[in-house]
Design goal:
Number of helices: 13
Strand order of the largest sheet: 1-2-5
Strand content: 5-15%
Bound molecules: nicotinamide-adenine-dinucleotide, zinc ion
Radius of gyration: 20 Å
Length: 319
C-alpha cells in the first residue's frame, strides 16, 4: 500500500498545508498488536503529535483497526481519518467505529469504539488489490445484500464481471451502497446491543470454520470462510422453513460466480466446529445465537438452534 499510495497522500496533505509524519507497518494480521501500537505511540511522541493532531490511516482493515485504536488511546483519544484501500476496508472495517488490536489468543480482544472523523474510500485504489482480497471484500458485499438490500443483490448479480475486473464505476456504486447499509445499522446500534448483530450473518459458522482450518494447518481467507458460513446458515434457515430453498441456491450461484466456495469436501469435524461455536465470543451464556435470512434483504435472529440442526447444515457443505 505504501509503495502505491503513500507518496500521493503525503504530497496532497503537504500541499494543503499540513505538517505530516508517517510510519509504515509490515502487512498482515500479525501487525495488529499492542507491540505495533506502542511503536506508533513512540513515533507520535517523538513527532510531537498532540491532541490537535489527526491520525490518517491509509491501508486495509488491519491498518484502519490499528491506527484507529492508536488514535482512540493516544492522549485519551485524538481524531482520525480512514483512507481504506481494500474492498473489505471500504465496505466494512473502516465504517462503524470499532477499533482494535489482537491478543495472541483472541482476535480484536483489546479495542475501543472510536469513530473516524471521516472515511474517504477511493475505489481506484482497488485496482492494485490482489484478487483474493477483492473476493474477501465481495463476500462482505453479498452479506450486506442478504441482510439488508435486495436491490444490491440484483446489482451484484448483474455486474459480477465488472466487479471482478475492478471496474471503478460499478465499484463506486457498490461501495457507496454498502457504506450506507453499514452506517444505517451502526447508527441504530453503535454498541451492538441488538440490530448491529445482523452484521454477524455468515460469521458465526464462518469464524468456526476459519479457526478449525487454521488449527489443522490449512488456513483460509476471511471471505472464503464467510461464504461457507453464509451458505450453511442459509441452509439452516431453509431447513427451519424460514427461507425459500431457491434463495439458498441463488446465494450459492452468486458466490460461486464471484470465485467464493460454497462447499468444502474436507470440512473440519462437526464436533470440533460445534465446540468452537459454543465458545464464540458472541455466544451468550453458551446459547448459540444465529442471524438467519428470511428472504434476500431480511434476517431474523434465533437463539434456540439445536446442535443437530447445525450438524445437518454443516453436512450440506461437505458434498
Ligand atoms: N473494525 C471493524 O468493524 C472491522 C470489520 C471487519 C474487519 N475488520 C478487520 O479488518 C482486518 C482485515 O482487513 P483487510 O481484509 O483489509 O486485510 P488487510 O488490511 O490485511 O489487507 C489485505 C492485504 O491487502 C493489501 N492491500 C490493501 N489494500 C491494497 C491495495 N489497494 N493494493 C494492494 N494491496 C493492498 C494489504 O497490505 C494486505 O496485505 C482484520 O483485522 C479484521 O479484524 C474490522
Ligand atoms: Zn467479515
Amino acid at each position: 500500500v505504501a509503495a502505491f499510495y503513500q507518496a500521493p497522500v503525503l504530497a496532497g496533505l503537504t500541499a494543503a498545508g499540513f505538517s505530516v509524519q508517517s510510519a509504515v507497518l509490515p502487512p498482515g494480521e500479525t501487525t495488529k498488536t499492542l507491540a505495533q501500537a506502542e511503536r506508533l505511540y513512540d513515533a507520535m511522541l517523538r513527532a510531537d503529535v498532540d491532541r490537535g493532531s489527526i491520525v490518517v490511516a491509509l491501508g486495509g482493515g488491519v491498518v484502519t483497526d490499528l491506527a484507529g485504536f492508536v488514535a482512540a488511546t493516544y492522549m485519551r483519544g485524538i481524531a482520525w481519518i480512514a483512507l481504506p484501500t481494500s474492498l473489505l476496508g471500504q465496505v466494512d472495517a473502516s465504517v462503524g467505529g470499532k477499533t482494535a488490536v489482537d491478543h495472541p489468543e483472541c482476535k480484536n480482544l483489546v479495542g475501543a469504539f472510536h469513530a473516524p472523523a471521516a472515511v474517504l474510500a477511493d475505489v481506484r485504489t482497488l485496482a492494485t488489490l490482489p484478487d483474493e482480497e477483492l473476493r474477501t471484500g465481495l463476500a462482505e458485499v453479498v452479506k450486506h445484500a442478504v441482510i439488508r438490500d435486495a436491490a444490491l443483490m440484483d446489482l451484484v448479480e448483474s455486474h459480477t464481471d465488472a466487479l471482478l475486473m475492478s471496474d471503478p464505476v460499478t465499484l463506486e456504486e457498490v461501495v457507496a451502497r454498502n457504506i450506507r447499509i453499514k452506517v444505517d445499522v451502526v447508527a441504530a446500534d453503535e454498541r451492538e446491543a441488538g440490530l448491529r448483530r445482523i452484521l454477524n450473518y455468515g460469521h458465526t459458522v464462518g469464524h468456526a470454520i476459519a479457526i478449525a482450518l487454521l488449527a489443522a494447518g490449512r488456513p483460509t481467507t476471511h471471505g472464503r470462510a464467510v461464504a461457507l458460513g453464509m451458505v450453511a446458515e442459509a441452509r439452516l434457515a431453509a431447513r427451519r422453513g424460514l427461507l425459500d430453498p431457491a434463495t439458498v441456491d441463488r446465494l450459492g450461484r452468486l458466490l460461486a460466480r464471484l470465485g467464493l466456495p460454497t462447499t468444502l469436501a474436507d470440512l473440519p469435524d462437526a464436533d470440533r466446529l460445534l465446540d468452537l461455536l459454543r465458545h464464540d465470543k458472541k455466544a451468550e451464556g453458551g446459547r448459540l445465537r444465529f442471524v438467519l435470512p428470511t428472504a434476500v434483504g431480511a434476517v431474523t435472529e434465533v437463539d434456540d438452534v439445536a446442535p443437530q440442526e447445525i450438524r445437518d447444515a454443516l453436512a450440506t457443505l461437505r458434498v
